[in-house]
Specification:
The complex is a heterotrimer of chains A (299), B (22) and C (217).
Chain A lengths: L3 H5 L5 E4 L4 H5 L2 E8 L8 E9 L3 H6 L10 H13 L5 E7 L1 H9 L6 H18 L4 E8 L3 H11 L4 E6 L1 H4 L1 H19 L23 H9 L16 H10 L3 E3 L29 H5 L2 E3 L4
Parallel strand pairs in A: 2-5, 5-6
Antiparallel strand pairs in A: 1-4, 2-3, 3-4
Helix pairs in contact in A: 4-9
Chain B lengths: L3 E3 L3 E2 L2 H4 L5
Chain C lengths: L5 E2 L16 E6 L6 E6 L6 E7 L6 E3 L2 E3 L4 E7 L2 H14 L7 H4 L17 H4 L4 E6 L2 E6 L1 H21 L23 H12 L5 H9 L1
Parallel strand pairs in C: 1-7
Antiparallel strand pairs in C: 2-3, 3-4, 4-7, 5-6, 8-9
Helix pairs in contact in C: 4-5
Classes of the chains: A alpha/beta (299), B alpha+beta (22), C alpha+beta (217).
Amino acid sequence: MALAELERDPAGGGRFSSPVPPSCRSRPCVLGVDEAGRGPVLGPMVYAICYCPKEQLQELEAMGVADSKTLSESERERRFGLLEAAGELLGWALQVLPPQHISACMQQRAKYNLNELSHDTATELIQHALDNGVQVAEVFVDTVGPAEKYEAKLRGRFPGLEVTVRPKADALFSIVSAASICAKVARDRAVKCWNFTEDLGDDIDRDYGSGYPNDPKTKEWLRRNLQPVFGFPGLVRFSWGTAQELLRHGGVPVTWADEDPSQDPSAPTSVLSYFSRSSPRRSPHRFFQERSLKPVAEL
Amino acid sequence: LLPCSVRFDGAAPVKAFMRERN
Amino acid sequence: PEQWVLIAPEAATEPPKTPDSEPVFTKLRNPSTGEATLYLFNSGAQQLFEVKAFHEEYHSWFIGETVQQDGRLLFITPMDPLFLILYYLMKADKEQQGKFQPLDQVVLDSEYPYCPLLLKCEGVKQSICHIAEEKEIGSQKFHKYSQEKTLKWLKKKVNQTVKALKSNGICVGERIYSSTFVSSKQITDSEEDYVRYAHGLISEYITEELSKELSKY
């Protein structure tokens, strides 16, 4: 029920959250941060926080949220149901980053890489909890990159909070595991209910496997759904190496006016090209030059 | 009119991938 | 490609009255550069049109459910055929040392087989006297290039162009303004600016030599 809004428009992404339990406004809380969908070439990336009063951590553990990675999809759904039902005990929030947003960030001129995007999203979610009155005392974060640097960054950003960043934090801290369940369930549902904004007909091909680049089913789906001019549907992360490679071979070359010349593999311009050997032709009148109007010799 | 050069002449599912807006 | 995107006046696209009189795109000799340039004769070669392309790099078209690599937008605009005929009259004047000749022997070009159609255009026979002296022997007319008449005709063209520039609010001054520049004073271009600009535009349709004469005139 809580994710119904996400299921209506997964491609739209956005923030989704539970109501803040009253106890979380008055008691010091622990807050866990985790993500789902970093590796796949399809679908959104989901960041989640989960928080509860510190003294109620044991109750959380009793729900069996530890070791979320070992759970099957159906088991995760069940555990998420338990978390939802424990609305008096804990709260959660999600940030769903659509694949097109991820691709745009990674490919824009001022590059915004995946790590920066991840850190910023996590930071925003922690801030969201604080802004909504959660008495956050301790933060536990899962990371794939260097933990020390990230921890220092978050400590600097949130000086009043005790911050712990660890790889595989979902196996170490049950609050992170709970966040992990929220993130994974949300991503699974988003991918399952994906609303293709492209008009691809009634028989949309949803047989995309795990979504990981090394999954043959996913690769086959990508090949089947590569349109030479437009590329892939928005479900695909265009910035992923797998997608870019397929586009290079199966797509039509497209050139943009502002493409970075440093990425052009051709040789630099010869200095001699600036010195004209032939007599200069009379240039067109200003009227035509200003309007980019040229005579036509051939159709 | 596109702000890029597409090196292809032929069919393309324009309506499927693009929405018209005034 | 088998299609192009163009903007043309209705006169250019009127349906032909007979099967063999359809509009035709053809190359003719550009009167300024001497190079092959594309023009259009409408149905029955009543009117001549020049073809210009809005052409910037990195453009393509979506046309319905197709993509077209050629990103040009063609503009078809009416053109006075006398500009092209003038070229041949001047050439004949040089080569034949000022002899009077029938027009259909002057307006001939081995490289451009459609060149004689210029004489079919509406009003050409009547307005040729603006650029040539005429002699009638029996029922036949003979023509010879006249610089004096041509300069007078071109001056009228320049004046008409000045009027059109003013009424269309075209900026003709030598100074360049950003399109976002807002001045508290109204920027007015001088009459000389207009004439210079108009002369430059007309010069796109005549030889460099004639352009210099026109400038002096």
